[in-house]
Each structure stands twice: as structure tokens, then as C-alpha cells.
Amino acid sequence: MMGRRQYPWELRPVPWSEWQEYTRGTQDGVILLSYGIAPRDKLATRRQLRTMGLRPGGQNPVALLYFRYRPAHTQVFAELFLIERAKPVRPMTDAKRRALGKALLARRTCRQCGEIGPVELPRTNRVCEPCRFTLGLLDSWDYLHDYVQGMPTLAPDELCGVA
């Protein structure tokens, strides 16, 4: 016995066309479309809008795009918005730019010594490696013990694996 399709084809009116179009029904009152049948010139996801320099602008999604992600055996649903109703992205103001710069600088600043590093510090404690060593936060097997102390814990023949 063959199973019934989960989302059968239905002919229904849609907001992006004056004609009825085939859809896969509705999901929570929103039109459901399978991969490849959404009109790319009229509907877009949030990311697609962003690449066009647009944002949804308060509009509700007019459709849901669904597809199967085979490696994880899951179904993925993406909201689709009308491109014609989308608004331009708000420009970055000087105040926003300064706030973003401060936040990114704080991610690189050690909370212990105040040094500003070249890369973002780990989220767990935001402490640089020398401070982690002095605070005793490094494990005894960590490679940084040799680096920070400046004294090797292994003999040269042990490093090469020669007995």
C-alpha cells in the first residue's frame, strides 16, 4: 500500500500573482511551496533580501519554502517575503559604528591585564594566554606551559620519538 503525500498539490490564489498557482497547501495559515517552485523574481528569504540591500520592513511572510536536508534527515522551512513590499536596509549611523567598534574591541581585551590582543579571546573568560597561565587556568598537559614558561618539559630525543 502506498502512503499519501504529506503535502499534496493544490491550486489556490496567491498574493504575488493575479492567477491561481499550484502550491503544497498551507502550514499554520501560510502558503507552503516546495523547493524550486517559488518565483525568484517576486519572493525572497531574509538573507536574499539582505544581499539585495533590502529588509522585510514589518511585513509578514507570504509563503513558506520547504525542503529536505538529507544529511540530517530533517525538513527545513524558510519564510518568503514579497520583494516589492520590502524596504531598504537602514544605513549605518556614526553612533552605531562607534558602538560596534567598542563591542569588537571589548572582545579582544583581556579582562585580567587589559592588554588588547590581535584576535578575539575565548568567550568563556576573555583572558589572554599569559594571564591564563598565571591564574592557573591552563591544564598541565597544555602546550602553552612550554611556550609561556620558556622551558621545555620534554628532552629533544623525546620530541622526535627516538628512544
Give an overview in words.
This protein is α+β, with helices and mostly antiparallel strands. The protein has 2 domains: 10-87, no CATH class; 98-153, no CATH class. 24% of the residues lie in helices and 23% in strands. The protein contains 5 helices and 9 strands, in the order E-E-E-E-E-H-E-E-E-E-H-H-H-H. The strands form 3 sheets. The protein has a 5-stranded mixed beta sheet with strand order 3-4-7-8-5. The N and C termini lie far apart (68 Å). The model has no long low-confidence stretch (mean pLDDT 85).
Note the overall shape. elongated
What does the largest sheet look like?
5 strands, mixed
Supply the number of helical segments: 5
Number of spatially distinct domains: 2
Contiguous uncertain segments of 5+ residues: none
Euclidean distance between termini CA atoms = 68 Å
Question: How big a fraction of the residues is strand?
Answer: 15-25%
- What is the number of E strands? 9
Query: What oligomerization state is this entry in?
Result: single chain
Portion in helices: 10-25%
- Output the radius of gyration: 27 Å
Main sheet strand line-up: 3-4-7-8-5
| Residue-averaged pLDDT | 85
How do the SSEs run, as a string of H and E? EEEEEHEEEEHHHH
| Global structural class | alpha+beta
List the topology elements:
Elements: E1 10-13, E2 20-23, E3 26-27, E4 30-34, E5 43-44, H1 46-51, E6 54-55, E7 63-69, E8 74-82, E9 87-88, H2 94-108, H3 129-135, H4 144-149, H5 156-160
Parallel strand pairs: 4-7
Antiparallel strand pairs: 1-2, 3-4, 5-8, 6-9, 7-8
